[in-house]
Amino acid sequence: MPLTRRDFAKLGALGLAARLAPSLNAQTGERKTGYAVIGLGRIAGHFMGGIRNTTNSQVTALVSGHRDKAERIADQYGVPHSSIYSYEDFERIAENKAVDAVYVALPNSMHAEYTIRAAKAGKHVLCEKPMSTSVAEADAMIAACKAASVKLMIAYRCHYEPTNLKAVQLIREGAIGQVQAIESAFGFNIAAGEWRLNRKLAGGGPLFDVGIYSLNACRYLTGEEPEHISAFASVIDHDGRFKEVEENVAWTMKFPSGIVASCNTTYGAPMNGFFRVHGSKGTLEGAPAFNYDGLHLIGDFGGTHLDESNPARDPYQFQAQAEHFSHCVQNGLDPKTPGEEGLRDMQYITQIYRSAGISI
Amino acid sequence: MPLTRRDFAKLGALGLAARLAPSLNAQTGERKTGYAVIGLGRIAGHFMGGIRNTTNSQVTALVSGHRDKAERIADQYGVPHSSIYSYEDFERIAENKAVDAVYVALPNSMHAEYTIRAAKAGKHVLCEKPMSTSVAEADAMIAACKAASVKLMIAYRCHYEPTNLKAVQLIREGAIGQVQAIESAFGFNIAAGEWRLNRKLAGGGPLFDVGIYSLNACRYLTGEEPEHISAFASVIDHDGRFKEVEENVAWTMKFPSGIVASCNTTYGAPMNGFFRVHGSKGTLEGAPAFNYDGLHLIGDFGGTHLDESNPARDPYQFQAQAEHFSHCVQNGLDPKTPGEEGLRDMQYITQIYRSAGISI
Predict the structure, then answer these.
(1) Average pLDDT score over chain A
(2) Sheet containing A179-189: which strands, arranged edge to edge?
(3) Is the pLDDT of residue B22 over 50?
(4) Given A257, A260, A270, which is nearest B282 (Cβ)?
(5) CB < 8 Å from B in window 297-336 of A
(6) Is there a single domain that holds both residue A198 and residue A95?
(7) Span B185-189, mean pLDDT?
(8) Residue B87 lies inside a defined structural domain of this protein
(9) How distant is the Cα of A232 from the closest Cα of chain B, in angstroms?
């Protein structure tokens, strides 16, 4: 059954377009969007693995401070060694016609600089979350991409993930009635020495890194923007890890409709990412909700007991978001999670820290 | 193995004494504590069922505005009709030697009045939660019981419930390491016409009625008192139910050690009572944690996967708390959940409402 553009727009509204993008792409014969991957850490590995499963995207360049590592990865992905860049000669990427876009997988504090440098080099930007370490940086990133007429997407992978999309769809369809309250949390017990504990690199602690999933989930689950925010933060473990960033944050939000949300994040304890949405007609719970795979949706509403595990394995989420962004790049469409989506989270994160007495 | 008084004190410190009280009682041949049940609504039914399973307690009088109903129940429990009192002639209970204590199962706004009247009549008082509808009332109740040299216990049944006690014990023993954060919630979708929707009778909405379980659980799970509290409240459904009390409350607390807690309560949605405690070494979750039975404790810590269901059926919690209070009455001991415990919750509830902009 061939899909029309109108069909696709409808699916897009449901957030389901990205899942069909490969087949659509096979039909339309779009050329593959070439990505320069900036930063070759853990998450870049997931992204490159995801790219390999797409039909509309490929890795065509690497940017790294470690030439040896970059050459090894280049060989794995068929990237010519001439398309390996250092941070110093990054601007040369402008001349590389095989590079349509960059994927910014650097520590948070470098997102703004490389987004802006990429935009000036005429490349579209897919930037990891958190978008930046401040609202001002996020504003500058959006402005730079606008000025250069390149697309900017923040890598909110859950927006392209079927379990989360199904929760959103069920809520919008009224399956659980009027939403009243949400609980969500995400955290982990961090190892000493991680760059995420360095405030200059990370911007902040677990709220920036994993709490943002709960914050963002409350927004996409409700379809509303929080109107009031209140928070507490703390450091309990004085073992040297938390000299620069907080260990725990608890925060509540109130949305315009009256929906309330209570969230936690931590770097001091295992804390499986979850959301639980309480509606007048029932409950919907993602647990785990934010992991790379193994996601699970449980629901009890109107006599229905839902219990669905998503069998897809990592890096399917990275595949889906790359497919979506490539599709947007190739067809002049706006990504579902543009810079403005990341900017909003930066504004709320700033409010949470301010309420908790932490200046960022 | 006979238990010495010292053994019992140790068990009491672990909160386990109440569980052993019946056998101890059988050993010591304590006489049964006689209760006058004040208010014959739903919860009184659970209490009287629980009493029937104890060896140290019995129902010896009833106080009700409905003589017919009271006579029917009196016959079930072997209470002489001469020991049925109306609210007007309640003071006559002072002369009834078969009544050692009262169980106050009235709407919240009447707890203070009947606790004080019972104390003045020389009877010990087991009062349902919430203790009162204001801090001032709670203070007056404590003062009245002190002045009359009678014991006052608030019916926090979870303090006498093995699943909750086991969670506390595991946390105190360090099973999940340093506690960092807690999520807890409890609520339900209330039917129109309930007295709990009447502010004058109930004092407030779901926070008074069921949110108090989460508030109290955060305190007994941590063994700390909240130092900072912040909250939002809302009414979403304008269907006539929430003209006087709030529909939703979300609140966060910060404890002196730095532990943070995020909680929700609602009268607008099914919301199974749960707590989830995140420690540096693992997680402990009660789900459901606050129901009358069917309680379930799940844990993952230090390679241990705990998954325990408590097979005890309602009214075992009412049995345990009656046994504990009777044991205290008979042996001149202080109950584990005295008036001061209820007073603290009233203080925190007041803070939560104040933070949410609701005056009580």
Answers:
(1) 93
(2) A228-234, A248-254, A260-266, A179-189, A268-279, A282-286, A296-301, A304-309
(3) no
(4) A270
(5) 300
(6) no
(7) 98
(8) yes
(9) 7
In a domain, A358, yes or no: no
Domain hosting residue A236, numbered range: 162-309
B262-317 pLDDT, tens digit each = 999 999 999 999 999 999 999 999 999 999 999 999 999 999 999 999 999 999 99
Dump pLDDT digits (tens) for A185-240: 999 999 999 999 999 999 999 999 999 999 999 999 999 999 999 999 999 999 99
Q: What is the pLDDT of residue A9?
A: 45
Query: What is the CATH number for B233?
Result: 3.30.360.10
ipTM value for the complex = 0.91
Do both B172 and B234 map to the same domain? yes
CB of A232 within 8 Å of any CB in chain B? yes
Among B189, B228, B232, B281, most A C-beta atoms within 10 A, so best to mutate, is: B232
Minimum-distance CB partner of A262 among B176, B235, B250 = B250
B236 touches chain A (CB under 8 A): yes
Reply yes or no on whether the pLDDT at A337 is more than 50: yes
Say which amino acid occupies A154.
I
pLDDT of residue B3: 41
Residue A17 contacts B where some CB pair is shorter than 8 Å: no
Residues A140, A176, single domain; the answer is: no
| Nearby residues of B274 by Cβ (< 8 Å), 6 or more positions away | B183, B184, B185, B186, B285, B286, B287, B288, B289
Contact B236/A259, CB-based, under 8 Å? Answer: yes
Tell me, yes or no, whether A356 lies in a domain.
no
Q: Are residues A33 and A120 in the same domain?
A: yes
Give this prediction's pTM: 0.92
Across chain A, the runs of DSSP E, i.e. the strands, are 33-38, 57-63, 84-85, 101-104, 124-127, 152-154, 179-189, 228-234, 248-254, 260-266, 268-279, 282-286, 296-301, 304-309
Would the pLDDT of A99 be above 70?
yes
Interface contact flag, B272 A283, Cβ < 8 Å:
yes
Total domains present in chain B: 2
Please indicate, yes or no, whether residues B217 and B292 belong to a single structural domain of this protein. yes
Share of chain B above pLDDT 70, in %: 92
Residue A213 falls in the annotated catalytic set: yes
Cβ-defined contact of B185 to A183 (cutoff 8 Å): yes
Contact B264 A269 (CB under 8 A): no
Of the candidates B228, B230, B265, which has its C-beta nearest A252's C-beta? B230
A7 pLDDT more than 60: no
Chain A contact for B282 (CB, 8 A cutoff)? yes
Distance from CA of B206 to the nearest CA of A (A): 13
Is some CB atom of chain B closer than 8 A to the CB atom of A256?
no
**Whether the predicted pLDDT of B24 surpasses 90:** no
Q: The dihedral of CA B59, B64, B67, B69: what is its sign? A: negative
CB distance B183–A234 less than 8 Å? no
Query: Looking at beta carbons, which residues of chain B come within 8 Å of A234?
Result: 254, 258-260
pLDDT in tens, A136-145: 999 999 999 9
Same domain for A111 and A133? yes
- Asked if residue A52 is part of any domain, the answer here is yes
Q: Are B173 and B32 members of one domain? A: no
Q: What's the CA gap between B215 and B221, in Å, rounded?
A: 10
- Residue A193 has φ and ψ, to the nearest 5°, of 90, -10
Q: What's B57's domain CATH number?
A: 3.40.50.720
Judge whether residue B1 has pLDDT over 50. no
**Residues of B assigned a catalytic role:** 129, 213
Q: Quick one: A52 and A79 in the same domain? A: yes
Q: Using CB atoms within 10 Å of the CB of residue B267, give its burial: 0 to 12 exposed, 13 to 18 middle, 19+ buried.
A: buried
Residue B78 has pLDDT above 90, yes or no: yes
Does the pLDDT of residue A3 top 90, yes or no?
A: no
Instruction: Annotate B273-292 with b (16+ C-beta within 10 A) or e (fewer).
Output: bbbbbbbbbbbbbbebbbbb
Residues from chain B that touch A248, judged by Cβ atoms under 8 A, are: 180-181, 258-260
